[in-house]
Design goal:
By secondary structure, this protein is α/β, with parallel strands linked by helices. 27% of the residues lie in helices and 27% in strands. It has a single domain, classed as Alpha-Beta Complex (Spore Coat Polysaccharide Biosynthesis Protein SpsA, Chain A), CATH 3.90.550. Strands 1, 2, 3, 4, 6, 7, 8, 9, 10, 11 and 12 form an eleven-stranded mixed beta sheet that branches. Strands 5-13 form a two-stranded antiparallel ribbon. The two termini are 25 Å apart.
């Protein structure tokens, strides 16, 4: 069975200021995720599952469905705050979704095969999908997952801080631990740091980080459900707490359930965290089209 591509597209884009998931950046209005889907199709993926919110489903489908019809199987999953909370009394004034691992949990009834998961607003590079397809079809099982590990220096925004899953890797190329750092940036002196509790900690340029491009067997979603119950107990009353996939990947390792392989990818990432990122994204896509990595009209 061909693997599935799951796309995280339910975020509220609070730092961007508009619905960046459906904003056109390509020469004929292509969204960033369309380039991801194009790369996934030519790598051999057979299905794409969009995780979105019900309130913008109509607008989302209007942009995507005419382009993908007949090219790949499509499914939708809706993330909402109440799903899988099992009656837990979370704050009524919370509006922020529970995070990426909760979004993946919402796929429990739809994803039954090996899958890769990505962000809708990140460009990962053609090779990433080839690496993911090879892993998913030859190595992936319930005890072996993977993260596409990018060099930190290739994943920064010039317009503000970024969040990255910082990986500690053993000599065999497997994950020892992963920590989500939510405020990483390059200082004026050129040094990369992450800031936490007003303290700066330096990070090496070639530190491998997760960009939320990961590959799992379907049983990983059950672990997301198991750990979500614990997350709600510890952080469910916080208005902005988030339940991240890298955290669950770390728990996969900690609980002795298996290993997480970190597959190096030295491609330069680009994406739209901030509105000011948009011109650079368009320029990068134009350059890829000019060098024939992609056709002018993607579909």
């Amino acid at each position: 069975m061909a693997p599935t591509l799951v796309i995280l597209a339910a975020g509220m884009a609070s730092r961007y200021g508009s619905m960046k998931q459906t904003e056109g950046f390509g020469p004929t209005g292509e969204t960033i995720m369309e380039y991801s889907i194009y790369d996934a199709i030519r790598a051999g993926f057979g299905k794409v599952v969009f995780i979105i919110r019900a309130d913008f489903a109509e607008a989302f489908k209007k942009v995507i469905e005419p382009k993908l019809a007949g090219k790949i199987q499509i499914a939708y999953v809706y993330q909402s705050i109440d799903k899988y909370t099992k009656g837990y009394a979370y704050p009524t004034d919370r509006v922020k979704p529970w995070g990426t691992a909760h979004a993946l949990l919402c796929c429990k009834e739809e994803v039954k095969e090996a899958f890769a998961i990505i962000n809708a607003d990140d460009y990962y590079g053609k090779e990433a999908y080839e690496l993911a397809y090879t892993f998913l079809t030859k190595e992936c099982n319930e005890k072996t997952s993977c993260i596409l590990g990018y060099e930190l220096a290739n994943t920064l925004s010039e317009n503000g801080t970024v969040s990255r899953g910082v990986c500690a890797i053993n000599e065999q190329g497997y994950l020892n631990s992963i920590n989500e750092r939510t405020k990483i940036y390059r200082k004026q002196d050129g040094q990369i740091v992450f800031e936490e509790n007003e303290l700066e900690t330096p990070l090496k340029e070639d530190t491998r980080v997760s960009m939320n491009f990961m590959c799992f067997a379907p049983g990983f979603i059950n672990l997301c459900e198991q750990e979500f119950t614990l997350f709600l107990q510890s952080k469910g009353q916080e208005l902005k707490s988030e339940y991240y996939i890298p955290y669950v990947a770390g728990r996969f390792k900690e609980l002795g359930l298996g290993q997480v392989k970190v597959i190096p990818n030295n491609a330069k990432w680009f994406g739209v965290t901030y509105k000011e990122d948009a011109p650079g994204v368009k320029a990068n896509i134009d350059a890829l089209v000019a060098t024939k990595v992609y056709p002018t009209n993607l579909w």
